[in-house]
Specification:
305 residues; 21 strands; single chain; eight-stranded mixed β-sheet; mainly beta; globular
């Protein structure tokens, strides 16, 4: 804990670079993982709790060895958070980084591994079954993926994902493509478009310009960006309004990135790798993978119109 206090004290000085951007209060984060194997690499809204006072969300972990936990269920409510393991049945992914509920397909999700393999899974109770899997289209040299989002409009489905980028010399590449499913469950992507994206914050050599993506009901694209200096930090991150996405009646996907992304919040001392807008609210559920320091979650009102 002393180490985190020292890191937060040093990182607080960086906030002067962002006049007007609200900082995330460290005391509002709640710990949900104790080590590098239990951080939050991605979040997907699953549903509300039985009493309506909280939400369930699926959490993916970026573990790489056979038998390590890939998927858990987070129960988030005022004053407490609980995590329960979910058994992964099927081919084991290496380094899961994102997960998203499939609109119109209850209990079914797409989970993305860092090298671009998408797993179609069905989650029932405490078990997840792999239905099929497929590579992303148009993977570029050196691409390293941490983000994935789905957009549904008038029966048409589109996917957004991004190579995370690395520092000033490698912007993130945001991809977008139509998405359908084969009768046997395999994800099938149309031809992708590409857009370069540089984070307004954080900046520097260790910056991952896009560490996750979420899309609001109105089509705003929210992205998290993170700085990672190693397994013990220091970390830094922000959530920004990056632009908009639309899907036409014919299924054409159009992404418009902001010339100057608006920083909605900065979070020194934490490495945000998950942003999930909660349906029916203005809240985004944020999750961190702080490596040896574990994982944390909190909600912020970033998803309003």
């Amino acid at each position: 804990m002393l180490q985190r206090v020292v890191r937060l004290t040093a990182a607080a000085a960086l906030l002067t670079m962002l006049a007007g951007a609200p900082a995330g209060a460290a005391g509002e984060w709640r710990k949900v993982g104790d080590d590098a194997r239990s951080g939050v690499s991605g979040l997907a809204y699953e549903g509300r709790t039985a009493d309506g006072a909280g939400v369930h969300a699926l959490v993916v972990h970026d573990n790489k060895r056979s038998g390590q936990q890939r998927l858990s269920r987070l129960t988030h409510r005022a004053g407490s958070d609980g995590v329960a393991p979910i058994t992964w049945n099927g081919p084991e992914p290496v380094d899961l980084e994102a997960i998203e509920a499939i609109p119109g397909m209850p209990e079914e999700y797409l989970a993305l591994a860092s090298r671009g393999i998408v797993y179609h899974v069905k989650v029932t109770g405490s078990a997840a079954e792999v239905l099929d899997y497929s590579p992303l289209p148009g993977i570029g040299e050196g691409d390293d993926f941490e983000s994935f989002a789905l957009v549904a409009r008038d029966g048409k489905l589109a996917a957004l994902w991004a190579d995370r980028g690395a520092g000033a010399d490698r912007p993130a590449t945001l991809y977008a493509a139509p998405l359908t499913f084969a009768p046997w469950g395999q994800p099938q992507f149309g031809a992708p478009t590409r857009r370069a994206y540089l984070a307004a914050y954080p900046t520097g050599e260790g910056t991952r310009h896009i560490s996750d993506i979420s899309v609001t009901d109105s089509g705003r694209i929210l992205v998290s960006s993170a700085s990672d200096a190693g397994d013990d930090g220091p970390f830094d991150s922000a959530v920004s309004d990056a632009g908009r996405v639309t899907v036409s009646d014919a299924g054409r996907v159009r992404v418009t990135l902001a010339a100057h992304p608006a920083v909605l919040g900065t979070f020194p001392g934490y490495k945000i790798e998950a942003v999930e807008c909660l349906p029916g609210t203005s809240d985004a559920l944020l999750g961190t993978d702080d490596e040896n320091l574990g994982g944390y979650v909190r909600a912020m009102p970033f998803c309003g119109a």
